[in-house]
Amino acid sequence: MFSIFGRIDRLSRFGFGLLVFLILLGLIGPYLPLGDPMRIGAGPRLSSPSWLFPFGTDELGRSFLPRVVDGIRATFLLSAVAVIITAIIGTLLGMVAGFFGGVADQVVARGADILFSFPAILAGLLIAAVMGPGQISAIAVISVATLPLFIRVVRSVTLGLASRGFIVAAQVAGASPWRVMIVHILPNIIGAVIVQLTYALSIGMIIESALSFLGLGGQAPYASLGSLLRQGSAYLTFAPWLVLSSGAVLSAAIMAVNLTGDAVRDALEPLKGRSLT
């Protein structure tokens, strides 16, 4: 573990530390003395940041800091659930396409191209029209947007492994195709999957925030960073701290995820990682 971190540059370490801090803040936020995010009239309406209310208050007099902390947890959790589900499905489909080839490869690859052609916002409008706005719709949209990325990456890596000697030897020894994929191919592509998962998480957070900003994500009293941005945008001219605080936290979270993805990539590619430091 320490040798891996020794190959990571300082900026990536900062991103990893920031990501850990934000995740821990989101998880333990309800147990910290930050105030009740749902308490109406905790302070003056739309008051500016102060020692008592570091992020100010919203239009109902609720302290905005605990609401932002709730938003961190909601955005991370929803995006992570969607991306993990997508990673499992995309890895399976990518291995099937790359290993079997032929009709299976054509069907999976063309299906990924079709999904890739849909803009995330358009897919969100279509899914929300069918399923209604909410967290399930947001998970579906994130899955539709990130699934082609997983399929393409896993398919490409699997194609490069399918003709390797140890794969051919396993097939000659009588191993079934599924055993070959699970026992021999999956361990060799897991690094690429993890790297893609980190980048897909940042994409998922952007999509979730955009959907919530448009009112297609989680609904009140559910709070995410995107819904807090939408809430603050109505008072931007005389209470800009609502947008600035939630927007800054969202930007920091996405930056931290991307920097962590770079760190994971450099750790899995030592030569490339040393050339960048």
TrEMBL record:
Q: Among its keywords, does the record have Transport?
A: yes
List the SUPFAM superfamilies hit by this protein, alphabetically. Answer: MetI-like (SSF161098)
Which keywords does the record carry? Cell membrane, Membrane, Transmembrane, Transmembrane helix, Transport
UniProt-listed GO biological process terms: transmembrane transport
Recorded protein name is ABC transporter permease
PROSITE patterns attached here? ABC_TM1 (PS50928)
Question: What family is this protein classified in?
Answer: Belongs to the binding-protein-dependent transport system permease family.
Domain ABC transmembrane type-1: start-end pairs: 72-261
> How the protein sits in the membrane?
Multi-pass membrane protein
Its annotated compartments are:
Cell membrane
